[in-house]
Amino acid sequence: MSLWGMASVVSAQDATLQTGQIVSPILTVDQEILLARSQYGAAKLSEIEDATESLAEENRQIEADLVAREAELTELRPTIPADQFRTLAAEFDAEVRQIRATQDEKQRDLLRRRETLQKSFFAEALPVLAQIARERGAVAVMDKGAFLIAADQIDVTADLINRLDQRYAGADEGTQSQPAQD
């Protein structure tokens, strides 16, 4: 190990002794908890959850309408010629397939929005996480789920949430759509 590396380790150990935090070359973060419990992450997730609930309500309404139309079509069957019924049934079936494809695309769009949110959120959190890693003398930070067993003392999720909340808190606390700039 170089002198600079040894000095960094000693410096980190001294800081740890003063703050009571454990020195570890590896730290963990629970990314799901980080996203869900930080003010900014929770606000952004709430937007997606609202859109998801809205889509679910839309799907329930569409389903109710289609069930009613199917019942009408079934009642109509004995009163019209078979070829006319087959035409109506085929048109209804095509409409149902189109509606399903449209609603499935809306669901995929929501999933893409969530993935994009997660990526951008973690990219924004990275500088803060890097600062925590430097302060604790860590050389790596891994998702907590990657470990079968890990000491709670190396989990920096709560510290990261606190720092992100301080960094991104606005006058309306959690209602702003963009993080505050340093």
Account of the 3D structure:
The protein has one domain (3-168). The chain is 70% helix and 4% strand. It contains 5 helices and 2 strands; from the N terminus they run H-E-H-H-H-E-H. A two-stranded parallel ribbon has the order 1-2. Helix 2 packs across helix 3, helix 2 packs parallel to helix 5 and helix 3 runs antiparallel to helix 4 (82-135).
Q: Average pLDDT, to the nearest integer?
A: 86
Which band does the percent of strand residues land in?
under 5%
Shape: rod-shaped
Number of domains: 1
Continuous helix count: 5
Q: Sheet with the most strands?
A: 2 strands, parallel
Poorly predicted sequence stretches spanning 5 or more consecutive residues? 1-12
Structural class call reads mainly alpha
Helix content: over 70%
End-to-end Cα distance: 36 Å
What are the secondary-structure elements, in order, as H or E?
Answer: HEHHHEH
**What radius of gyration results from the CA coordinates?**
27 Å
